[in-house]
Amino acid sequence: MVPKNKILDIIKDYDPKDITIATLCSHTSLQIFNGAKKEGFKTLGLAVNQKTKFYDAFPLAKPDEIIRFDSYDDFVTRAEELRDRNVIIVPHGSFVEYMGTERFEAMEVPTFGNRAVLKWEEDRETQRTWLESAGIQMPRRIADAKDITEPVLVKYNGAKGGRGFFIAKDYLEFKMGIDLSQESYTIQEYVLGTRYYLHYFYSPIHPRGYRVGTGSIELLSMDRRDESNIDELYKLGATEELKKHGMFPSLVVTGNIPVVIRESLLSKVFEMGESVIERSIELFGGLIGPFCLESIVTDKLDFKVFEISCRIVAGTNPFITGSPYSDLIEPGMSTGQRIAREIKDAVAMGRLGEVVS
Ligand code: ATP
Q: Residue 161 above 70 pLDDT?
Protein backbone atom coordinates (compact mmCIF):
# COMPACT_ATOMS: atom_id res chain seq x y z
CA MET A 1 0.00 0.00 0.00
CA VAL A 2 1.29 3.49 -0.83
CA PRO A 3 1.98 5.11 2.55
CA LYS A 4 -0.39 7.95 3.38
CA ASN A 5 2.59 10.28 3.93
CA LYS A 6 3.64 9.75 0.34
CA ILE A 7 0.17 10.79 -0.86
CA LEU A 8 0.24 13.83 1.43
CA ASP A 9 3.63 14.82 -0.07
CA ILE A 10 2.23 14.44 -3.58
CA ILE A 11 -0.78 16.67 -2.97
CA LYS A 12 1.44 19.33 -1.37
CA ASP A 13 2.89 19.83 -4.85
CA TYR A 14 -0.53 19.98 -6.53
CA ASP A 15 -1.84 23.34 -7.72
CA PRO A 16 -5.20 23.56 -5.88
CA LYS A 17 -6.65 25.62 -8.73
CA ASP A 18 -5.67 23.09 -11.38
CA ILE A 19 -6.88 19.69 -10.16
CA THR A 20 -8.03 17.09 -12.67
CA ILE A 21 -10.58 14.40 -11.81
CA ALA A 22 -9.85 11.12 -13.56
CA THR A 23 -11.53 7.76 -13.72
CA LEU A 24 -11.65 4.63 -15.83
CA CYS A 25 -14.01 4.99 -18.83
CA SER A 26 -16.64 2.56 -17.57
CA HIS A 27 -19.24 1.82 -14.84
CA THR A 28 -20.26 5.26 -13.42
CA SER A 29 -17.88 7.44 -15.43
CA LEU A 30 -20.67 9.49 -17.05
CA GLN A 31 -21.88 10.87 -13.72
CA ILE A 32 -18.33 11.19 -12.32
CA PHE A 33 -17.25 13.33 -15.30
CA ASN A 34 -20.55 15.22 -15.42
CA GLY A 35 -20.34 15.94 -11.69
CA ALA A 36 -16.69 17.01 -11.87
CA LYS A 37 -17.47 19.39 -14.73
CA LYS A 38 -20.37 20.90 -12.78
CA GLU A 39 -17.96 21.57 -9.90
CA GLY A 40 -15.47 23.25 -12.27
CA PHE A 41 -12.79 20.54 -12.48
CA LYS A 42 -10.85 19.40 -15.53
CA THR A 43 -11.66 15.78 -16.40
CA LEU A 44 -9.52 12.97 -17.72
CA GLY A 45 -10.74 9.61 -19.00
CA LEU A 46 -8.47 6.59 -18.54
CA ALA A 47 -8.97 3.73 -20.97
CA VAL A 48 -7.33 0.36 -21.38
CA ASN A 49 -9.57 -1.65 -23.72
CA GLN A 50 -12.72 0.41 -23.13
CA LYS A 51 -14.45 1.87 -26.19
CA THR A 52 -14.95 5.60 -25.76
CA LYS A 53 -16.84 6.86 -28.83
CA PHE A 54 -20.11 6.78 -26.86
CA TYR A 55 -18.97 9.86 -24.91
CA ASP A 56 -19.48 11.88 -28.13
CA ALA A 57 -23.20 11.27 -27.64
CA PHE A 58 -23.12 12.82 -24.14
CA PRO A 59 -21.35 16.20 -24.34
CA LEU A 60 -22.05 17.09 -20.70
CA ALA A 61 -20.32 13.92 -19.53
CA LYS A 62 -17.51 13.66 -22.06
CA PRO A 63 -14.08 13.95 -20.39
CA ASP A 64 -11.90 16.85 -21.57
CA GLU A 65 -9.26 14.36 -22.58
CA ILE A 66 -8.81 10.59 -22.75
CA ILE A 67 -5.51 8.77 -22.38
CA ARG A 68 -5.02 5.14 -23.32
CA PHE A 69 -2.98 2.60 -21.42
CA ASP A 70 -1.72 -0.72 -22.77
CA SER A 71 -2.56 -2.55 -19.56
CA TYR A 72 -3.62 -2.00 -15.95
CA ASP A 73 0.07 -2.18 -14.96
CA ASP A 74 0.47 1.25 -16.62
CA PHE A 75 -1.59 2.85 -13.86
CA VAL A 76 1.31 1.97 -11.56
CA THR A 77 4.23 2.50 -13.95
CA ARG A 78 2.89 5.72 -15.56
CA ALA A 79 1.80 7.26 -12.25
CA GLU A 80 4.13 10.22 -12.69
CA GLU A 81 2.31 11.24 -15.86
CA LEU A 82 -0.92 11.36 -13.88
CA ARG A 83 0.65 13.22 -10.97
CA ASP A 84 2.05 15.81 -13.41
CA ARG A 85 -1.54 16.59 -14.36
CA ASN A 86 -2.57 17.03 -10.68
CA VAL A 87 -4.84 14.01 -10.98
CA ILE A 88 -7.15 12.72 -8.29
CA ILE A 89 -8.54 9.34 -9.25
CA VAL A 90 -12.14 8.55 -8.41
CA PRO A 91 -12.33 4.77 -8.15
CA HIS A 92 -15.49 2.87 -9.03
CA GLY A 93 -16.44 -0.81 -8.86
CA SER A 94 -15.01 -1.79 -12.25
CA PHE A 95 -11.84 0.23 -11.71
CA VAL A 96 -10.95 -1.70 -8.56
CA GLU A 97 -12.05 -5.04 -9.99
CA TYR A 98 -10.00 -4.70 -13.20
CA MET A 99 -6.96 -3.27 -11.41
CA GLY A 100 -7.00 -5.89 -8.66
CA THR A 101 -6.27 -4.99 -5.05
CA GLU A 102 -2.46 -5.15 -5.27
CA ARG A 103 -2.09 -2.78 -8.20
CA PHE A 104 -4.78 -0.48 -6.86
CA GLU A 105 -2.94 -0.23 -3.54
CA ALA A 106 0.41 0.33 -5.23
CA MET A 107 -0.71 3.21 -7.47
CA GLU A 108 1.20 6.33 -6.40
CA VAL A 109 -1.58 8.70 -7.42
CA PRO A 110 -4.00 10.30 -4.93
CA THR A 111 -7.34 8.46 -5.00
CA PHE A 112 -10.59 9.66 -3.47
CA GLY A 113 -11.48 7.65 -0.33
CA ASN A 114 -9.51 5.46 2.05
CA ARG A 115 -7.69 2.62 0.30
CA ALA A 116 -7.31 0.79 3.64
CA VAL A 117 -10.95 -0.26 3.22
CA LEU A 118 -9.95 -2.82 0.57
CA LYS A 119 -8.52 -5.27 3.07
CA TRP A 120 -11.88 -5.33 4.82
CA GLU A 121 -14.00 -5.37 1.74
CA GLU A 122 -12.34 -7.81 -0.64
CA ASP A 123 -13.19 -10.96 1.28
CA ARG A 124 -16.68 -12.05 2.41
CA GLU A 125 -15.37 -13.15 5.83
CA THR A 126 -13.66 -9.85 6.72
CA GLN A 127 -16.76 -7.97 5.50
CA ARG A 128 -18.82 -10.11 7.86
CA THR A 129 -16.46 -9.40 10.78
CA TRP A 130 -16.78 -5.65 10.15
CA LEU A 131 -20.54 -5.56 9.57
CA GLU A 132 -21.59 -7.98 12.32
CA SER A 133 -19.35 -6.22 14.83
CA ALA A 134 -21.22 -3.04 13.83
CA GLY A 135 -24.49 -4.75 14.81
CA ILE A 136 -25.67 -5.34 11.23
CA GLN A 137 -27.78 -8.48 10.63
CA MET A 138 -26.50 -10.62 7.80
CA PRO A 139 -27.80 -13.83 6.15
CA ARG A 140 -26.92 -16.91 8.22
CA ARG A 141 -23.93 -18.93 7.01
CA ILE A 142 -24.18 -22.70 6.55
CA ALA A 143 -20.77 -24.25 7.22
CA ASP A 144 -21.51 -27.76 5.93
CA ALA A 145 -23.53 -28.40 2.77
CA LYS A 146 -24.97 -31.53 4.42
CA ASP A 147 -26.82 -29.19 6.80
CA ILE A 148 -28.87 -27.55 4.04
CA THR A 149 -32.51 -27.91 5.08
CA GLU A 150 -33.95 -24.71 3.59
CA PRO A 151 -33.26 -22.60 0.47
CA VAL A 152 -29.66 -21.36 0.36
CA LEU A 153 -27.57 -19.36 -2.05
CA VAL A 154 -24.17 -20.80 -2.99
CA LYS A 155 -21.71 -17.99 -3.80
CA TYR A 156 -18.34 -18.61 -5.42
CA ASN A 157 -15.79 -16.34 -3.79
CA GLY A 158 -14.16 -15.07 -6.98
CA ALA A 159 -17.50 -14.44 -8.73
CA LYS A 160 -18.74 -10.95 -9.52
CA GLY A 161 -22.15 -9.62 -10.37
CA GLY A 162 -23.88 -12.77 -9.10
CA ARG A 163 -22.35 -14.84 -11.94
CA GLY A 164 -22.40 -18.58 -11.28
CA PHE A 165 -24.34 -18.33 -8.01
CA PHE A 166 -27.02 -20.96 -7.56
CA ILE A 167 -29.91 -21.76 -5.28
CA ALA A 168 -30.21 -25.13 -3.53
CA LYS A 169 -32.91 -26.38 -1.20
CA ASP A 170 -31.18 -29.54 0.05
CA TYR A 171 -27.86 -31.40 -0.11
CA LEU A 172 -28.84 -33.22 -3.30
CA GLU A 173 -29.50 -29.96 -5.14
CA PHE A 174 -26.22 -28.61 -3.81
CA LYS A 175 -24.33 -31.62 -5.19
CA MET A 176 -26.07 -31.27 -8.54
CA GLY A 177 -25.24 -27.55 -8.76
CA ILE A 178 -21.73 -27.29 -7.34
CA ASP A 179 -18.85 -26.73 -9.75
CA LEU A 180 -15.82 -28.20 -8.00
CA SER A 181 -13.45 -26.64 -10.51
CA GLN A 182 -14.31 -23.22 -8.99
CA GLU A 183 -12.08 -22.07 -6.12
CA SER A 184 -13.98 -21.61 -2.85
CA TYR A 185 -17.59 -20.81 -2.05
CA THR A 186 -19.81 -19.80 0.82
CA ILE A 187 -23.32 -21.05 1.54
CA GLN A 188 -25.82 -18.53 2.85
CA GLU A 189 -29.42 -18.65 3.96
CA TYR A 190 -31.56 -17.44 1.01
CA VAL A 191 -33.33 -14.44 2.51
CA LEU A 192 -36.85 -14.05 1.19
CA GLY A 193 -37.88 -10.40 0.96
CA THR A 194 -37.45 -7.27 -1.13
CA ARG A 195 -34.06 -5.88 -2.07
CA TYR A 196 -32.88 -2.32 -1.39
CA TYR A 197 -29.40 -1.17 -2.37
CA LEU A 198 -28.85 1.85 -0.14
CA HIS A 199 -26.49 4.54 -1.44
CA TYR A 200 -24.83 6.55 1.32
CA PHE A 201 -22.10 9.18 1.41
CA TYR A 202 -19.87 9.76 4.42
CA SER A 203 -18.13 13.11 4.66
CA PRO A 204 -15.49 13.34 7.41
CA ILE A 205 -15.17 17.11 6.86
CA HIS A 206 -18.79 18.31 7.07
CA PRO A 207 -20.24 18.09 10.61
CA ARG A 208 -23.78 19.03 9.56
CA GLY A 209 -27.06 17.19 8.97
CA TYR A 210 -26.97 13.60 10.26
CA ARG A 211 -23.74 13.66 12.27
CA VAL A 212 -21.43 10.69 12.51
CA GLY A 213 -17.74 10.58 13.48
CA THR A 214 -16.08 13.90 12.64
CA GLY A 215 -18.63 14.60 9.92
CA SER A 216 -21.96 13.32 8.65
CA ILE A 217 -23.69 10.76 6.47
CA GLU A 218 -26.08 11.49 3.66
CA LEU A 219 -28.50 9.14 1.95
CA LEU A 220 -28.29 9.98 -1.76
CA SER A 221 -30.45 7.32 -3.45
CA MET A 222 -31.58 3.67 -3.60
CA ASP A 223 -31.92 1.15 -6.39
CA ARG A 224 -32.87 -2.42 -7.01
CA ARG A 225 -30.83 -4.47 -9.44
CA ASP A 226 -32.36 -6.10 -12.46
CA GLU A 227 -31.05 -9.65 -12.44
CA SER A 228 -31.24 -12.10 -15.30
CA ASN A 229 -32.90 -14.49 -15.50
CA ILE A 230 -34.37 -14.75 -11.97
CA ASP A 231 -36.42 -11.55 -12.26
CA GLU A 232 -38.39 -12.87 -15.23
CA LEU A 233 -38.34 -16.61 -14.58
CA TYR A 234 -41.73 -16.67 -12.86
CA LYS A 235 -43.42 -15.91 -16.19
CA LEU A 236 -42.64 -19.43 -17.35
CA GLY A 237 -44.27 -21.15 -14.39
CA ALA A 238 -42.93 -23.40 -11.64
CA THR A 239 -39.13 -23.35 -11.26
CA GLU A 240 -39.04 -27.09 -10.52
CA GLU A 241 -40.76 -27.85 -13.81
CA LEU A 242 -38.33 -25.59 -15.69
CA LYS A 243 -35.33 -27.46 -14.29
CA LYS A 244 -36.46 -30.50 -16.28
CA HIS A 245 -35.89 -28.37 -19.38
CA GLY A 246 -32.42 -27.34 -18.19
CA MET A 247 -33.54 -23.82 -17.15
CA PHE A 248 -32.05 -22.74 -13.81
CA PRO A 249 -32.36 -19.39 -12.02
CA SER A 250 -29.35 -17.08 -12.41
CA LEU A 251 -28.54 -13.74 -10.75
CA VAL A 252 -26.51 -11.84 -13.34
CA VAL A 253 -26.87 -8.05 -12.99
CA THR A 254 -28.14 -6.41 -16.18
CA GLY A 255 -29.38 -3.00 -15.00
CA ASN A 256 -30.75 -0.89 -12.16
CA ILE A 257 -34.19 0.38 -11.19
CA PRO A 258 -34.81 3.42 -8.93
CA VAL A 259 -36.71 2.67 -5.72
CA VAL A 260 -37.75 4.39 -2.50
CA ILE A 261 -38.26 2.66 0.82
CA ARG A 262 -41.26 3.09 3.10
CA GLU A 263 -40.55 6.17 5.15
CA SER A 264 -40.85 4.45 8.54
CA LEU A 265 -37.75 2.39 7.65
CA LEU A 266 -35.54 5.43 7.08
CA SER A 267 -34.46 5.67 10.73
CA LYS A 268 -33.14 2.13 10.55
CA VAL A 269 -31.41 2.91 7.23
CA PHE A 270 -29.52 5.79 8.87
CA GLU A 271 -28.72 3.80 12.03
CA MET A 272 -27.16 1.06 9.90
CA GLY A 273 -25.07 3.56 7.91
CA GLU A 274 -24.00 5.24 11.14
CA SER A 275 -22.83 2.06 12.86
CA VAL A 276 -20.98 0.84 9.75
CA ILE A 277 -19.06 4.14 9.58
CA GLU A 278 -18.35 4.26 13.32
CA ARG A 279 -16.97 0.72 13.24
CA SER A 280 -14.89 1.50 10.13
CA ILE A 281 -13.27 4.38 11.98
CA GLU A 282 -12.29 2.00 14.80
CA LEU A 283 -11.09 -0.75 12.46
CA PHE A 284 -9.10 1.10 9.79
CA GLY A 285 -9.41 4.86 10.14
CA GLY A 286 -12.76 5.10 8.39
CA LEU A 287 -14.50 4.64 5.09
CA ILE A 288 -14.73 7.93 3.17
CA GLY A 289 -17.21 8.97 0.48
CA PRO A 290 -19.86 6.79 -1.17
CA PHE A 291 -20.78 3.31 0.01
CA CYS A 292 -23.68 0.95 -0.48
CA LEU A 293 -25.35 -1.52 1.85
CA GLU A 294 -26.99 -4.25 -0.22
CA SER A 295 -29.97 -5.36 1.80
CA ILE A 296 -33.10 -7.48 1.84
CA VAL A 297 -36.12 -6.39 3.89
CA THR A 298 -38.17 -9.31 5.19
CA ASP A 299 -41.93 -9.33 5.85
CA LYS A 300 -41.04 -8.71 9.53
CA LEU A 301 -39.47 -5.45 8.26
CA ASP A 302 -36.01 -6.61 9.33
CA PHE A 303 -32.98 -5.71 7.21
CA LYS A 304 -30.47 -8.39 6.28
CA VAL A 305 -27.36 -6.98 4.61
CA PHE A 306 -25.58 -9.41 2.29
CA GLU A 307 -22.79 -7.14 1.06
CA ILE A 308 -21.15 -3.73 1.38
CA SER A 309 -19.61 -1.87 -1.58
CA CYS A 310 -17.17 0.77 -0.45
CA ARG A 311 -17.25 3.21 -3.36
CA ILE A 312 -19.67 4.56 -5.97
CA VAL A 313 -21.95 1.74 -7.22
CA ALA A 314 -23.60 1.41 -10.64
CA GLY A 315 -26.97 1.56 -8.89
CA THR A 316 -26.48 5.34 -8.57
CA ASN A 317 -26.63 5.73 -12.38
CA PRO A 318 -30.41 6.32 -12.55
CA PHE A 319 -29.85 9.45 -10.43
CA ILE A 320 -27.56 11.63 -12.56
CA THR A 321 -30.04 14.48 -12.10
CA GLY A 322 -30.80 13.76 -8.45
CA SER A 323 -33.08 11.42 -6.51
CA PRO A 324 -36.07 11.75 -4.17
CA TYR A 325 -33.50 11.77 -1.33
CA SER A 326 -30.63 13.87 -2.70
CA ASP A 327 -33.18 16.45 -3.90
CA LEU A 328 -33.95 17.11 -0.23
CA ILE A 329 -30.27 17.94 0.36
CA GLU A 330 -29.46 19.82 -2.84
CA PRO A 331 -31.66 19.45 -5.92
CA GLY A 332 -30.06 17.69 -8.85
CA MET A 333 -27.06 16.28 -6.96
CA SER A 334 -25.73 12.92 -8.21
CA THR A 335 -23.25 10.78 -6.30
CA GLY A 336 -20.67 11.69 -8.96
CA GLN A 337 -21.19 15.39 -8.34
CA ARG A 338 -21.21 14.82 -4.56
CA ILE A 339 -17.72 13.30 -4.82
CA ALA A 340 -16.45 16.28 -6.83
CA ARG A 341 -18.05 18.66 -4.32
CA GLU A 342 -16.28 16.91 -1.45
CA ILE A 343 -12.93 17.27 -3.20
CA LYS A 344 -13.65 20.94 -3.96
CA ASP A 345 -14.69 21.68 -0.36
CA ALA A 346 -11.70 19.80 1.04
CA VAL A 347 -9.35 21.81 -1.21
CA ALA A 348 -11.02 25.07 -0.12
CA MET A 349 -10.65 24.10 3.56
CA GLY A 350 -7.03 22.98 3.09
CA ARG A 351 -8.11 19.45 4.12
CA LEU A 352 -7.67 17.50 0.87
CA GLY A 353 -5.40 15.05 2.72
CA GLU A 354 -8.38 13.91 4.80
CA VAL A 355 -10.40 12.65 1.83
CA VAL A 356 -7.72 11.07 -0.36
CA SER A 357 -5.28 8.21 0.18
P1 ATP B 1 -21.38 -7.64 -6.65
O2 ATP B 1 -19.99 -7.79 -6.16
O3 ATP B 1 -21.52 -7.25 -8.08
O4 ATP B 1 -22.25 -6.80 -5.72
P5 ATP B 1 -21.65 -10.42 -6.02
O6 ATP B 1 -21.24 -11.33 -7.13
O7 ATP B 1 -20.73 -10.26 -4.87
O8 ATP B 1 -22.08 -9.06 -6.63
P9 ATP B 1 -23.94 -10.48 -4.31
O10 ATP B 1 -24.13 -9.01 -4.41
O11 ATP B 1 -23.48 -11.06 -3.03
O12 ATP B 1 -23.02 -10.96 -5.51
O13 ATP B 1 -25.28 -11.22 -4.74
C14 ATP B 1 -25.82 -11.19 -6.07
C15 ATP B 1 -27.34 -11.19 -5.99
O16 ATP B 1 -27.80 -12.36 -5.32
C17 ATP B 1 -27.89 -10.04 -5.17
O18 ATP B 1 -28.03 -8.87 -5.94
C19 ATP B 1 -29.21 -10.59 -4.67
O20 ATP B 1 -30.22 -10.49 -5.65
C21 ATP B 1 -28.92 -12.04 -4.47
N22 ATP B 1 -28.55 -12.40 -3.10
C23 ATP B 1 -27.31 -12.30 -2.54
N24 ATP B 1 -27.30 -12.80 -1.29
C25 ATP B 1 -28.56 -13.22 -1.05
C26 ATP B 1 -29.20 -13.89 0.05
N27 ATP B 1 -28.52 -14.22 1.14
N28 ATP B 1 -30.51 -14.19 -0.07
C29 ATP B 1 -31.23 -13.90 -1.20
N30 ATP B 1 -30.67 -13.31 -2.27
C31 ATP B 1 -29.38 -12.97 -2.21
A: no
Which mutation among 101, 118, 150, 153 tests ligand 1's pocket best, with the greatest number of atoms within 8 A of CB? 153
Whole-model pTM above 0.90?
A: yes
Which distant-in-sequence residues (6+ apart) come within 8 Å of 115 by Cβ? Answer: 1, 2, 104, 105, 357
Confidence check: pLDDT of 241 > 90? no
- The 10s digit of each residue's pLDDT in 56-90 is 999 999 999 999 999 999 999 999 999 999 999 99
How do strand 87-89 and strand 20-24 relate by DSSP bridges?
A: parallel
Q: Is the CB of 252 under 6 A from ligand 1?
A: no
- Any idea which architecture 4-135+194-225+259-354 has in CATH? 2-Layer Sandwich (3.30)
State the distance from the centre of ligand 1 to the C-alpha of 157, rounded, in angstroms.
12
Mean pLDDT of 137-156: 95
Q: Is 114 helix (H, G, I), strand (E, B) or coil?
A: coil
User: Which residue, judged by its Cα, is nearest atom 15 of ligand 1?
Assistant: 162
Residue span(s) of the chain under CATH 3.30.470.20 come to: 4-135+194-225+259-354
